[in-house]
Amino acid sequence: MQAQSNACTIYIYLCGSNLETKQGLAGKNLDELLEADIPSDTKVVVQTGGSTTWRSHNIKNDKLQRYEVRDKQLVLLEELENASMGDESTFKNFLTWGAGEYAAKRNMLVMWDHGGKSADKVCFDENFDYDALEQTELASAFKGAQLPFTFDMVIFDTCFMSTLENAALISDYAQYMVVSQEVVPSGGIDYKALVQDFSAKNNKELGESICDSYLAKCKAKELDDAAELSFLDLSQTNSMIQAVNDLCEQFEMTQDAKDATFRIENATKSSAICGAKNISNLFDLQGFTNATEFFDDSPSTQKVADMFDEFVVYKITGNKTESAGVSLYFPFNYDRQEFQTYIKTCPMEAYAELLKSRYSNLPAQMLEFEDRGSITPDGDFKISFSEESARYLTSVTYTLAKQSDEDPDTYMLLGSDCNIKQDWDHLTFSSDFYPTWPSLWGQRLLTSIVLMLPHVVAFSAPVRANNEAWDFYAVYAFGDNYREGEYVDGALWGGLDANGIPSRNYALLEGGYKIAAYAATSTKKEEVTLLEEVTIPQGTSDEDANHVEEAPLEDGRYRFQYVATDIAGNSLTSDYGIFEVSGGQARLVEVQPQ
User: Fold this and answer.
1) Are 435 and 510 in contact (CB under 8 A)?
2) How far is CA 330 from CA 15, 251, 280, in A?
3) What gap in Å lies between CA 348 and CA 402, rounded to an integer?
4) What does DSSP assign to residue 575?
5) Which of 9, 128, 282, 461 meets the CB 3.0–4.6 Å disulfide criterion with 84?
6) Considering the entire predicted model, what is its pTM?
7) DSSP readout, 99-121?
């Protein structure tokens, strides 16, 4: 086949992964393409792979297949031996083939699948143990393909990929990028609008149209609360990188290394992406610069702030999303290999040096108790840490378990919470235990904390809704203090898979739904029993159907244990505080060694 003379080509790298196997999401986006009235000057080509099961269009799971969308049909062009869509050579071959067969005056690339929680990987192939394209592989594939053109636009229809690091990678190969800082709801972008608009609009108009049509699609499915999409001008990437690097150099010059990294860590936590579904190692760059202004002797952030209008051309946000358009990596959940890889590829030398000063050469034991558990004169359960622990302690939470009525030696886990009196200056923490627990439609939730920020904490808990397995996700937003807060943004969520990849599947409970929570039968969250199903009354509003409230704990004995976490994600647990709950009051009666 000879190279095409068409004006526009859209190349779609469709790694179906478990999104297709479980929900048929890739096939649904193909349906949108087949419904579109594609202009005669536009070609759309698709490579499929990455799923153990394809639910539609007779797509094979044991082959790589290449199609053209033509006359509202998916026309098979060729089949290749199966290979990982997460492998550099597979992606490079797709680019080389597409450029050789379909190069046009204007060219667009769409990457479809999961994005990694740290935006360091994309396209997870289910057939090859979730092998994914790492940033170094993406860069090598683009370079090796030796494309005869620069893409007008690269779109990541994936979660979390709107980062300065990804912009640095793509900027040599594309003029613009459309990406999300958040989890992308399951429907993804509007492919029908995309292919119909490409040739009719210039790049700026097209970028805005993609963002607007995406938000409209999310709203139509009532999934717009955490929707976010950014349209970035990649020609401004190097200027933004230089501005961030200069800011980090100012931190190094105005503060000693230890104090500088502490300040940066506090600023990143204050600016972590806090749309309702976020669990990533990423923070909002503009929120970070705003947070640094509250520090004494803070460096000037004006240069970074000035760059946003040039770099982030356009963005849309949902009702609950506060992100400004572009993120940066920070190891909130530290992974040594991920961190070392990042340091080697970080485009900002000064930022990499600050991270290295904090996370390199970590000792084997970072946390040490001075008091593993005692009773204060006020009757609180208290712990404290050594002075050296201050450098490494990142959070203190607790788990709560109820003594079995049948066997006093058996305790049943209720879950995790973080309503604790915290004295970080003296590394002392004491209980603020009030005998209530998060509840949904009268059923106590088996909670896990998935995100902690200065003013919000996000929980998830396993449930069954209409006989399907879900996690229920809710954010607790603090008021003037923890007690005066409220639960917001409740929704069903597909949770994390075995590889730690967040689901793109969300839904709201509605009137008529049947809901059942799980209760633990031991101190292990995996050992559970399903509670009796409850039917949500018809006519219940979405807000009320998804509302979590604090319900009183029944009388009995409860075991309270602190969990301290260091910057590498290691946990240290305290002794047990035994509380007796009676008539809505809790009393600490003893401390037991663990």
Assistant:
1) no
2) 27, 16, 9
3) 49
4) E
5) 128
6) 0.86
7) HHHH--SEEEEEEES-B-TTSSE
